[in-house]
Amino acid sequence: MTNPQGKGIRDKILDAEALIGKLTAEIATMKPTLKTTQNKAEKLRLLKIDLESLVQRKDEVNLSLTCRNYLIDLYVSARYNRTKDITNRYIKKGLEVEDDSLTLLSLIEKRYFVKNKFRLENDYVSGEPDTFVGEDIFRCQSIYDIKSSWDLFTFNHSKYSEDINQDYWWQLQGYSDLTGCQDLALAYCLVNTPSPLINSEIQSLWYKLGCPSEDSPLYVEACGELEKAMNYDDIDKSERIKIIRIERDEEALERMHQRVLECRHYMNQTFFKQ
Q1: Can you tell me the distance from the alpha carbon of 266 to that of 64, in angstroms, rounded to the nearest whole number?
Q2: Are strands 126-127 and 183-189 parallel, antiparallel or unpaired?
Q3: N or C: which terminus of the chain carries fewer CB neighbours within 10 A?
Q4: Each residue of 196-230: pLDDT tens digit?
């Protein structure tokens, strides 16, 4: 879903009403002739004007262009039974090494993790958490979302970044909404690249080098460097995983629910309005 970080109109109305109440109470205890009182009275007047404008816009749907384009794609996909191809080498590796990353997580966390196969949904979101700790997904104590990095460099970008990827953060909040789980974890894993993907990269390298002979010294050296760059058995396992703990955010979930309702309103008005 699109990131509902900014406050919506309804939240702004609540904030304005709270501030108006606070200013009204303060002014009631002050002398009317004081300059401070007059300044606050003017601020109160302007706030009331802003509130009136917000109330008139409370049913307005304010979605970004990215969000609207996503909703259009969603409608087209459902309406015409088509899907957009989003497959790339990063997604392919993530899918193919899922078990290897689970094994790495198990070794580091010292507990046995298995792939969750239950897809969940509620009135607002749906999703399939990668793995969890607990008796079952509906009574789990922790949820882990695994991200298998493409290579050593992308892994370390994630490992040392001061900021959490917001898409992944919201993904875990969605899983929390589905299960009620409070303890969430994002696990970046670096595991060896499967042979078919390495062969595909070697073929791509061959074209980039102008289709050299297979015994070309330059080509042989480049292939060796490529294979080394895509295998990590020489790096300690503890250096190939980064686990980031995330807490459930109730306020964020409320904003997420509101954004879903706004998206539905937009789709109803755009695609199904009679």
Answers
A1: 11
A2: unpaired
A3: C
A4: 999 999 999 999 999 999 889 999 999 999 999 99
The amino acid at residue 28 is: A
Q: Which residues pair with 100 in a beta bridge?
A: none
Q: What is the pTM of this model?
A: 0.75
Task: Let me know the angle formed at the C-alpha of 73 by 68 and 77, rounded to the nearest 5 degrees.
Answer: 150
Which pLDDT score, from 0 to 100, does residue 1 have? 47
In this predicted structure, the answer to whether residue 100 has a pLDDT above a threshold of 70 is yes
Tell me which residue has tokens 């607002």. Answer: 124
Q: What would you report as the CA-atom Rg of the chain, rounded to the nearest whole angstrom?
A: 26
| Angle separating helix axes 217-229 and 195-208, nearest 10 degrees | 140
d(C-alpha 206, C-alpha 139), whole Å: 51
* DSSP label of 189: E
pLDDT for 85 equals 72
Could you tell me if 181 and 142 are in contact, meaning their C-beta atoms sit under 8 angstroms apart?
A: yes
